[in-house]
Amino acid sequence: MTRAKAGAPRDAGKRTGLRAWLPLLRPGDWLTVGSAAAGVALLWLALGSSGPAQRAQIRAGGRLVAELPLTIRKTVEVAGPLGLTRIEVETGRARVASDPGPRQYCVRQGWLDRPNAIAICAPNEVSLTLAGTSVHDTVNY
Amino acid sequence: MTRSTIELIATEQDQRIARYAAAAIALGVAEAAIPSPLPGIKPGLANIVTLVVLARHGWREAAWVTGLRVLAGSLLLGQFLAPGFFLSLAGALASLAALAACVRLPSRWFGPVSMSVIAAFAHVGGQLVLARLWLVPHDAVFLLSPLFATAALLFGVVNGLAAARFLEGDAAGEVRHPS
Q: For the domain A55-131, what is the CATH code?
C-alpha cells in the first residue's frame, strides 16, 4: 500500500522555537483565539472568583434579622405572615429546614454552600442568603 | 441455488477513512494513559486527525473518522455505552456541528487553529449540556465551566497548531500545483 500523503516537505529546520509556529496562525485565528480568551476570562470572573461562603444572612419582610457565621451549627426560627420558617446553619452550609409555604421551593433547594446562593420562601417573606469574603454590598449595621 | 456471498468493496475513500480513524484511535488510546488532574480534561489529540481530514477531504470524511474514533475508541477502552462514551459522543457531535459551520469561513483568514478552538469549545459545551441534562441534573455542573473552557482554549490552540503544522506541506504543494 502506498502512502501518498506521507513525507510532506518540511522546512522546520529553518525556524526554531515559538517563531516557527507563529506563521501557522492566520489573521482570523488571532481573532478567534482572542475572543475565546476573553470569553474564558469572563467565565472565570463570573463563576470562578468567589471563595467559600462565610456567612448566612436571614431576612424577614426584607429586613436583615440574623447574620450567622457558617462555622457554628445553629438552628434559627423566623416568624413570617404564615408562621415559622426554620433555618439550619452548619459548617460551610445552610438550608431552610422547614417552611409553612404551600410549594416548599425554598425547602427543596436543600443545602446552600456557595456565596450569593439564595433560598427565598416568598409566601412567608423569609430569605436565606450566603455571603462570601468580599461581598459587603448588602450588609448594614 | 442463489449466491449468498455479499462482497463489500472497500473503495479508496473507505481505506483512507480507515487509516485516518486508526491514527485517531491510537492517539485517543495513548492519551487515556496520560494522568489528568481532573477527570474529563484531556488534550484531545485525536482531534488533530479530524482537523487534518477536514482540511484535506472535507467535513463528511472528518465526521466519519470522528464517529469511528468515538465508537472504536470506547470499545478499546471498555467505555462503550458507559457515561464516558455518551459524553464523548455528545462532545464529538457538538464539535462536528460547529465545524460544519466553520468550514464556510474564508480560509484565507481562518485556519486550523480557529477550527480547533471553536470545535474545542463546542465539544466542552456539548458535554456540559449532556452532563447537566442527564448525569448531574443541577446547575452546579456549570461551575466547572471556567476550568473546562480554559482547557478547551489551551488544547484547542495546541491541537490547531499541530494540525496546521501537519498541513503546511499540503499548502506548499497547492502553490506548486495550482490545479
A: 2.60.320.10
